[in-house]
Amino acid sequence: MSDIPKASDRKIWRTLLGALAVAVVVGAGYFAAVAAPAGTGLAAKQLCSLVFVSGMPARQAVEQYINPVIGPLPPFLRWSVDPARKEVRASALGFAEARAAAHPGYGCVQLIHQSEAALAQKLPALAKEQQPLPALAAASETLQRALDTALQAPYTQAVLVAHNGNVVAEAYAPGVGAHTPLPGWSMAKSLTATIAGMMVHEGLLSTDEVALFRPWEEDDRTHIRFDDLLRMTSGIDIAETKTGADANSHMLFKAGDAAAYAASRGLTAAPGSEFAYTSGSTVLAAGVIMERLGGPQATYRFIHERLFDPLGMHDTVLEPDEAGTFIGSSFVMASARDWAKLGQLYLQRGAWNGVQIFSPEWVDYVTTHTPSSTGRAYGAGFWLARPAEADRAEASWPADTFYASGLQYNRLLIVPSRGLLVVRLGATSYFADSGIEALMQAALAEYPAQPLAG
């Protein structure tokens, strides 16, 4: 029998190879046109923030924070840091170039259509005075050992435990300290919910408001309530799949004006009917906040004068897009101590040094379960512990635990019944490797529930 392929076999192989070649070309074109620009945008923005806000060496930032979240892009990624201009550029195989620049007081901004000078006109100058650190309360050897162990988890940068308003233990990676702002990713959503609560308290906003953007008045989007934005039940069509080709990636890293892009999207579900976690809902909430307060300058002053200054959160940076809108879903740089101050504000039910920053009822609002969020329970800008779900680590946590949560297992855990706060900041890819559960258990063991008097 001859080993020479038949003409029909050769034709089949040519067809298959041709199809493969087409697939490679199409895939490469898709990568170049859609996914790579979002990936390089993320790389430029985050690298800029980590170098010029956190003070982290560039190669460490790329290895720990960027490569793990940009899919297949790392082998093709090229980046440069300009210390004089405080600018970062990133590209993939010579295309999809992205640029981000540091702006005093505002961290880093990805510049797509605007110049630094145009951005500077939108944003007010911010003066920050550092407050001296209060003395640490004494930590037990057991708890300090638990923190030291948690710090050994992959790429952990900061861990902190506070009890009854005092920091009782904290530990930091080399080059990181009590004043180092670090990425919290979606922990930003909890801060945006806090700002919304301040506005509700001052009568500037209502969670029941509808017709939030003028174009929405012409279709079913008019029924989206501000409450739906905070609870992830807006129904807005901004899928968050972290592929680089999803609408969320376009919004954050390609649009330039994230709120305008989000407001232009249609619906995938009736407002209020379904829970769908998407940063787009929180970006829209930030857009409403900015519009209601009168634009970037008034908004930043409101946040600093009403929240950051009273609490002494001077290591917190709200990073905007080039339109000047703070990206309230994802881009907040803050120290572990500043996150603890925010958590303490919730433990004190909105009161700080005799001033009610938001109403006590706001704590109840953000911790009320959104019924359509199943599996992992969501409130309004915060996640909620569900002890009944034994398959989750939080099954053993007190039932009143709620928390801010961000990509790469960044957490602010709040336990009102224990007066307890646990903060973990870092860039770990798997929860089991983050050290969060062991640290939480150590803190709960250190501060058990107190029996009721009488």
Descriptors:
15 strands, 4-stranded antiparallel beta sheet, single chain, 15% strand, 14 helices, Beta-lactamase, alpha+beta
How would you sum up this structure, described in words?
With 454 residues, this protein is of the alpha+beta class. It folds into 2 domains: 12-116, no CATH class; 141-446, Beta-lactamase (3-Layer(aba) Sandwich), CATH 3.40.710. The chain contains 14 helices and 15 strands. It has helices spanning 7-52, 58-66, 116-122, 141-151, 188-201, 226-231, 247-253, 258-263, 279-293, 296-311, 336-347, 360-366, 431-434, 436-446, and strands at 77-82, 87-92, 95-102, 108-110, 156-163, 166-172, 182-183, 317-318, 332-334, 351-352, 355-356, 383-384, 402-406, 410-415, 420-426. It has a 6-stranded antiparallel beta sheet, with helices on both faces. The longest helix is centred in the N-terminal third of the chain and has 46 residues, at 7-52.
Broad structural category: alpha+beta
- Taken as a percent bin, the fraction of beta residues is 15-25%
Known CATH architecture of the largest domain: 3-Layer(aba) Sandwich
Multimeric state: single chain
Q: Strand order, biggest sheet?
A: 6-5-15-14-13-12
- Strand elements, count: 15
**Straight-line N-to-C gap:** 97 Å
Total number of domains? 2
Shape: globular
The averaged pLDDT comes out at: 89
Which spans of ≥5 residues are poorly predicted at pLDDT below 50?
A: 21-32
Largest sheet: 6 strands, antiparallel
Could you tell me the CATH topology label of the largest domain.
Beta-lactamase
Total helices: the number is 14
Q: Tell me the name of the CATH class of the largest domain.
A: Alpha Beta
Classified in CATH, the superfamily of the largest domain is DD-peptidase/beta-lactamase superfamily
**Spatial extent as radius of gyration:** 23 Å
Q: What is the helix content? A: 25-40%
Order of helices and strands: HHEEEEHHEEEHHHHHHEEHEEHEEEEHH
